[in-house]
Each structure stands twice: as structure tokens, then as C-alpha cells.
Amino acid sequence: MNRILKNVLIIGGLTTATTALIFYFRRQYKLLSDACYNITGGVIHNISADTVKLTLFFKVKNNSDLTIHIDNVEFSIFVNNLFITKIYRKEKQTILSNSDIIFQINVEFSPKELLKAGLTNIMPLITDKDKLVINIKGVYNIEAGIVKVKKVPFDEKISLKELMTPSPNTKKC
Asked: Any bridge partners for residue 87, and if so which?
């Protein structure tokens, strides 16, 4: 094989390999940035006129071929569109490739904060589970090797009644 043909084959092979890697990482980036999540349930630890404590469970699915890490979770919690509290979770959560995990967030607030925000007549909200709607808005980061997606948006709403059912969100990811 002559030298020119050998160089053309080497350059062609490198170009093909580079192109394949670029397409692979673009596909993985797309899978990461379109992360699939939903609220799968919650546990109400305490609900009274003084305090509301609950744990929300999120199912996060990794459709990528890469093991991913979620960190820097920053959620704002709203009750009936009134801001209640902000939750930060800095630690990393690992999700293996093509699998899912249940991610939990603990929420605690005082219904008196609703009064400060301008909501009157709190007790009907606490007792009528259809009328109390929790909205979680925020962002989180996803990392998989050299592929990083920062500030992936998150926005979910769920009523207290839905939260208390065994499978509140039946939508498929």
C-alpha cells in the first residue's frame, strides 16, 4: 500500500471515528437534557395549623447509556401559587444507565407563612385536600462524564389529595 493511500485511510478513519463520537455525545446530551421525572407520591408526617411536614418522592429516569449524577437541586415550593419555602440539595445522586431511582425531598413549612403571604382562611385548605395544590419549581444539574447539563428546569403541580394516593401521576416517562 502506498503512503498516500495509507494517509487517506488514516485520516478517513479518524474523521469517521470523530464524527461517530460527536453524534454519540450529542444523543447522550439530548437524552440528559430531556430527563424524565414525575412525582410518584409523598408521605405527610404532620399537618396542622402550626406545621406541615411532608416528604415528596420523585421518580427520575435515566434514558442515557451513561451513568449520571444529579446535584445542586434548587426547588421553590408554592402552595396555591404562594411561595412558601426554598429547598437546596447539594449532594450528588447517582443514577445508573438506563435505569431509574426514587429521589426524595423533605418539605416543612408553617401554614402561618401562608397568612404572611396573604392567604386567608387556611383551615379549609388543610382539611379539603383537593384545594391545597403544591407546586414545585426549580432547577438541577446533570453530569455524565464530560457531558454536563446545568439548570435543567423542573415544574410539577400536585394536589394534596393526589399526593396521598398510591400512584398520583400515572403519566409514563
From this structure: 75
* 111, containing H or E segment: helix 111-116
Q: Which helix (H) or strand (E) holds 164?
A: none
Cα-flanking dihedrals φ and ψ of residue 81, to 5°? 70, 10
Going through 63-115 in order, the beta strands assigned E by DSSP cover 68-79, 82-89, 93-95, 99-109
For the stretch 10-22, pLDDT in tens is 888 889 988 888 8
pLDDT digits (tens, 9 = 90+) for 38-63: 778 788 888 777 888 888 888 888 88
CA–CA dist 37, 93 (Å, integer)? 14
Please give the backbone phi and psi of residue 19, each rounded to the nearest 5 degrees, phi first. Answer: -60, -45
Give me the amino acid identity at 125.
L
Q: What are phi and psi of 24, to 5 degrees?
A: -60, -50
Rounded Cα distance between 157 and 163, Å, is 10
For residue 155, give the nearest of 63, 37, 34 by alpha carbon: 37
Q: Which grid cell is 79?
A: 402552595
